[in-house]
Amino acid sequence: MTTVPTVETEVLIVGSGPAGASAALALSTYGVPNVMVTRYSRLADTPRAHITNQRTMEVLRDLGVEEDVIAQATPQHLMGNTVFCTALAGEELGRLRSWGNEPLVQAAHELASPTRMCDMPQHLMEPVLVNAAIARGSQLRFGTEYLSHEQDADGVTATVRDRLRGDTYTIRAKYLIGADGGRSKVAEDAGLPMGGQMGVAGSINIVFDADLTKYVAHRPATLYWVLAPGATVGGIGAGLVRCVRTWNEWLIVWGYDVNAGPPDLTEEYALSVVRKLIGDDEIPVTIKSSSAWTVNEMYAETYSNGRVFCAGDACHRHPPSNGLGSNTSLQDSYNLAWKLKLVLDGTASPSLLDTYSDERAPVGKQVVTRANQSIGETAPVFEALGGLAPQTPEQLWRNIAARKDTTEEAEGQRARLREAIAFKAYEFNAHGVELNQRYASAAIVPDGTPDPGFARDPELHFQPSTRPGARLPHAWITSGTRNLSTLDLGGNGRFTLITGIGGEPWTEAARILGKEFGLEITTAVIGPGQEYEDPYGDWARLREIGDSGALLVRPDNHVAFRRQGATGDVTAALGDALRQTLGRG
Q1: Which of 351, 371, 391 is at the close of a domain?
Q2: Residue 453 and residue 465: Cα distance in Å, rounded?
Q3: Of 158, 249, 237, which Cα lies nearest the Cα of 206?
Q4: Nearest to residue 120, comparing CAs of 99, 141, 135?
Q5: How many independent structural domains does the chain possess?
Q6: Where would I find the FAD-binding domain in this sequence (predicted)?
Q7: Is residue 83 one of the residues assigned to a domain?
């Protein structure tokens, strides 16, 4: 019997979903050899995750695939409403302007980022990420099942099985990334401690084709929530009709009693649910697939063990509420990839990799908590209609009809319903949850200033800041005839030092220290007559430093170091900051 030789690489990635594919793309972009394996014979064939928020679009912008995503995604303005109804063809109960389409939130989106959120279903997103990763050097092996791993002082040896041939072989890597989803075997084998619980409720996905233009084109939306008898059973709190492609490809989410187990997912059953939520039996429907899944509330307390790191659903398992799943997954990988690159090329100490868990685990916990909380926040909508207490369907319809009465009681019911729908902004307009991530770790150098906290609700509202640990604020600046974002100054796997007029000592220090550390540090001077100018004055209002001050920005566009001016020994100050950030202190 022929022995299959060990495959060798720098980084082995298990899983080709959003976390795995983006890890491969980022690593290959940075020139790090990597092998990605997936037990499946193809990429995602169902829509699954879809909301793509501004922070993720910024990551995709930096990785050079933003335009590829925009070309295929549903644009933000067609995501615009969240509709609550008794069925698509039934009675509308109210709408919420969502996903940045409420006028004040839209303005906040415009101010916050050079990017726009969009709806990019996973079966379209994965090929964009994977194709770009392969084009840049990633090696992908389909039909390759991860079985186990062993690690030692120098690397990780993973045993995998070729599902086509049936034989096993080993892959030797310096580091292993487990991006193998909510039932991650890599996370289990690595012994990552988990909080929360799995299987708290049950849901069914039904993918189907139907031309629903006449019911939706006048109120374009990503999500249509159906409040009908049985909608509160398990699942995500209501029946959901989700637009996959405008306006003829759809996905329905319907709950089931997780204790009783999922129903028999026959085509007849799937069609009955579709008919119930559409409310028009004459519309031609083609069922494409149906599957059962469970709502989870679980998060890893640490994301790594030695040379093994996990990302995405392997670390944070939660319902699709708020549309945070794939976004958090891509951002996990973006945080990890540049650190692996600098450790592998000897620029940074391996201790830099400890900051991955320190920075991303709190984000994962927040996301799991927020997503599950959003399910509970659907209940007041039902409560306003008297739809939570056990009752007959006929009684629910009477309750819904009663809100149109001229009585004082009906007026109160209408007010409660409006308030309940408006409160769902925490699910559909949580701009702060998406952008307010501020890291605290050894790779962040505090500047000694007190943390002012947030002036407004940090879940709903984004608050830009240049405090170390915060994402670099976006402002439109110019370079000659070119308009660009301050975020475009950074990224590309490099550190960036941003200063202004009078900040020449900082740029000289960056040049000297870049050579000393073997580190590429891009410098950007912003001011009148400089390479970059601030014609609107937006950057001056956001930077929170003086003209001669400096910001050291990491490859992921988070601020590592900040100083107000150029006083003192700036070379020593910047050198100390780099040593701390790179773990070389």
Answers
A1: 371
A2: 10
A3: 249
A4: 99
A5: 2
A6: 8-371
A7: no
Q: Beta-strand (E) ranges in 301-347?
A: 304-305, 308-310, 316-317
Paired tokens of 366: 């927040």
- CATH number for the domain including 458? 3.40.30.120
Q: What is the pTM of this model?
A: 0.96
Token output for 458: 């940090």
CA gap 376, 484 in Å, rounded: 41
Residue 49 buriedness (CB in 10 A; 0-12 / 13-18 / 19+): buried
Q: Give the Å distances, CA to CA, from 8 to 167, 169, 176, 331, 435.
A: 18, 11, 12, 27, 38
Three-class secondary structure of residue 390 per DSSP: coil
Structure tokens at 326: 């794939």
Encode pLDDT of 352-406 as tens digits: 999 999 999 999 999 999 999 998 899 899 889 887 665 678 888 888 999 999 9
Looking at residue 198, what is its pLDDT? 87
The string of pLDDT tens digits covering residues 179-198 is 999 999 999 999 999 998 88
Percent of the chain clearing pLDDT 90 (strictly above): 90
Cα-Cα-Cα-Cα torsion 478, 482, 487, 490, nearest 10 degrees, comes to -100
Instruction: Kindly state whether residues 365 and 447 are assigned to the same domain.
Output: no
- The DSSP-derived string for 559-584 is EEEEESSS-S-HHHHHHHHHHHHTT-
Q: How confident is the model at residue 238 (pLDDT cuts 50, 70, 90)?
A: confident
Nearest residue to 549 via CA among 494, 492, 506: 506
What average pLDDT does range 554-580 have in this prediction? 98
Opening angle at CA 557, ends 74 and 178, nearest 5: 70
Q: 332 in a domain, yes or no?
A: yes
Which of 319, 350, 371 is the last residue before a domain boundary? 371
Residue 247: band (very low, low, confident or very high) from pLDDT cuts 50, 70, 90: very high
How much is the pLDDT for 40? 97
Residue 445 and residue 354 share a domain: no
Six token digits for residue 7: 């495959």
Secondary-structure breakdown of the chain: helix, strand, coil percentages, each rounded to the nearest 5: 35, 25, 40
